[in-house]
Protein 1
Amino acid sequence: MNNATIIKEPSIAISSELLEELSTQIHEQGQIIIHCIQQAEFPSFIRIWPTTYLYDHHSEHKSELVHAENICYYPHWKVVDQGQNSFTLIFSGLPSHCSVFDLIEQCENESGAFKALNIIRNESDVYFVKV
C-alpha cells in the first residue's frame, strides 16, 4: 500500500462556496471530508474503491465512504493530467470520542491502494491528504 501524507495547510485553492457548503453538511450530518491531492508524473488514471474506510483507533468503528467528487468509483477509471490533481472523499461520521483515525483503501490490487495513518481529528472534520 502507498502511504499518504497529511497536509496541515494545503497549497491548493478550493472554492470558498464549496468549503462553506461542505462545512454546513458536516455539522448537519456529522460527515468527515477528506480532500486528496495527487501529483501525477505523467498523464494517468485514478479511481477509488467503495471499500475505502476511516478506522477509529479506539473502537471497532469504521466510517463508510458515502460520496466521492472528481474521481471515479471502481471499476471505472478517470483520466488525469500530469501535475497536481485533487479529489474529495466524504465519509459517514466518526464516534464523538474518536481522536485518531486511519484512512485505508481496501482493494483487490493492494499495490495500488493507499492509506493515511494516524490522522489526528480536528474540530472541523475537514482534512487534506497527499496521496
Protein 2
Amino acid sequence: MPWWGIAILLLSCLLFFAALHAAAKNKRPVKRALLSMGSGALTLAAVNLLSGFTGVYLPVSLLSVLVSLIGGVPGVTLLLFLNML
C-alpha cells in the first residue's frame, strides 16, 4: 500500500472517531480522537519496549499499527491475545 493510502486511511479513522465523539457531545472531539488513537500507539510501543522483561513481543507491521490506532488499548490487547494463540 502506498504511503498516501495509509495517510488517507489514518485521516479517515481520525475523522470517524471525531464524529463519534461529537455525537457523544464531547467538548473537543478531535482532541479526544487523537488521544484515543495515540493511546493505542503508545500501548503498542510500551509492549515492545518491555518485551525484554516480559517476554511478550508484538511484531510492528502495518496491520499491527493500524489495529492499535483504530482499536486503541483494546486493539493492542486483542493483538496480545491473538499472539498467545
Protein 3
Amino acid sequence: MLSQNQQDEASNRLSLLFHLLGYSVMITASVGLFMLIRFFGEANSRENLVGPMSPMAEPVAKVAVDTLPHVLGALAVVIVLGRLLGSVMAKLGQPRVIGEMLAGIVLGPSILGRISPEVMHFIQPASIGPLLALIAQLGVILYMFLVGLELNPDVLKSKAGASIAISHSSIVVPFLMGSGLALLLHERLAPDGASFTSFALFMGVAMAITAFPVLARILSDRGMEKSSVGAIAISCAAADDVTAWCLLAFVAGVSQADVSSAVRTSVLAVAYIGIVLILAKIFGKKVLGRLNQSTMSARVTAWILVALLVSTLITESIGIHAIFGAFLIGAIIPHDSIVSREFRNKLHDFVTILLLPAFFAVTGMRTQIGLVDNSSDWLICAAIVAVATVGKFGGTFVAAKLTGLDWWTSASLGTLMNTRGLMELIVLNVGLDLGIISPTLFTMMVLMALITTMSTTPLLSFIEWLRNRLDAAPAAAS
C-alpha cells in the first residue's frame, strides 16, 4: 500500500504529465496551423510582390536651430492635454494612459488637422518630426526597461500551474486568429514588398499583446491586485509580455532579411538571451544583493545605464529592435533589489510624464483616421476589433476553465487579458517603422488598441454586477 504522500506525489506527477502533453499538442498544432496559413498566404501573394520591403520610417534629417522652440512647445502642449484628458478618463473609471494616448491623436491630423490644419502645423510642424521621433524612441527604450523591472518571478512561480496554461493559450489563440486574418488583409492593406510571412507573423503578435503595466494599474485601482484573479492576471500578463517581445524580435528579424538570415538572427538572439541570463545568474544577485541604500551611488547608476545602452545596441545590431535589449536588462535585475526600486523611483515620472508624450505625439501624427474613409474600411476595422477580442478573451476563458477556475473568474481573466494600451502602440510603431503594415492598417490597429483597453473596466464592472445579481436571486427566492 502506498502512503498518502506517495499517492499525492504520483497524482501530481500524472497531472504534470497531462499538462505537458496538452501543452506539447497545443504548440505543435499551432505551428502546423500557422504553416498552413503561411502556405496559402504566400501562394496568393507571391505574384503581388513588387520589390524588396523598405522601412516606412523617414531618415533623421538635419534639424534647424529654430525647430527647438517648436519641439519644446509641442511637448508642453501634449503633456498638458494628456494630463487633462487623463484626469477625465480617471473620473470615468478608465486608466489615465487612455487620455494620454488620445492626446496624441487629438493633436494629430485625425482631429486637430481636420478642425484647423494651420494650428496643427504650428504646434507640430513637419520639421520637428525627426526630433520628436528620437525623443520618443528614447522614451520607449527607458519605458521598456521599467517594464522589465516590474516583472516579479515570485508571482509567476506562485501561480505557475494555472498561469502557464492560461498565458500561452491567451497568446496562441489570438496569434493564430490574427495570422488567419492576414489572409484577408495582406493584399489590401500590406505595403508593397511586405512578404506574407512577416505580415502574418506581425498580425499574430499584435493580436496577442497584453499591456502588463496598464493591467496592473486597473487591478490596483479596483483593489484586485491581491485577489486570486488579480495574482493570476498579473502573472499571465507578465508571461505574455516576455513571450510577445520574443516573438516580436523574431518578426523583426524575418522582416529585415531572407529566411536564412532570419534564422541566423533568431539563433543570435537566443544566444544573446542565454548569455545575459547566465551572466545575471552568476553576477547579478551577488553584486546587486550587496548593494544597500548608501551604495546606490551615481557610479552604480551609470554602469546600469551603460549596460542598458550596450544591450540595446547589441539587439539592434543583431537585427531585432532596441527595445527588446532594454526590456531584457530590466527583467534580469531582481525585482525587490535596491537597484530596481531606485530606478523605478528615479525614472518613472521622468519617462512617463516627459518622454512618453513625445511617443504619443508621434503616434498621433501617424494615426490618420481619414484613411479609414468608407464602409468597407470600417467593416475591416470592426473585424480587427472582433478578432482581437474573441481571440484574447476566448483563449484565456477556455484555458482558465480547463484549469479548474469558475465561470466568473475565467470571464474576468479574459476581460483583463484583452487590455492592450501603450504596449500595443509600441508594437504597432515598430511594425510601421519596419514597413510591415501600412498607415491605414496602423490607424485601424490603433483604434483597436483604444477600444479593447477602454472596454476592460466597464466589462469588469458588468461581470461583477451580473455575478452579484445572479447570486442574490436564489437568496431572494428562498
Protein 4
Amino acid sequence: MKWYIPDCYLHSKSNGEFVSHEAVCILNTSCSDIDFSLTLYFEDKDKAGGYSVTVPAERTIHVRLDKTVSADGTPIPRDTPYAMVIECEGDHSEDVFIQYTRVDSSQPDLALATTII
C-alpha cells in the first residue's frame, strides 16, 4: 500500500511560540502492528530513504517530520521542497488512515494546511 504527498516543505524560520513543522498522522485500526517506510524525492538530488515508523495495532502516531531522522541519523532537510511516499507491506486500505499537516509560522500570522490522503 502506498500514499503520496507531492508538496512537502519544512521551513527553517519560525515566528512566535509555534515551530514551523510538518506532521504525518497515521491511524492503524487493524489488530496488528504495521511498519511504514518514508521515501523522500527531491527536485535536484537523489531520493532519500531509511525513514521508518511502526504504528501499533489499534493506535495512532503523530510523526513530526522536523524531528524525524533516517536509520543513519540523517534529518529531513529544511528549506528544501520535496515529495514523500509512505509505504507499508500488504493491503491495509480499510485499516490505515493518513493525515498530512503543515504548520508554517515563518510569518507573523500562522498558516496551517492539512489533508487526509
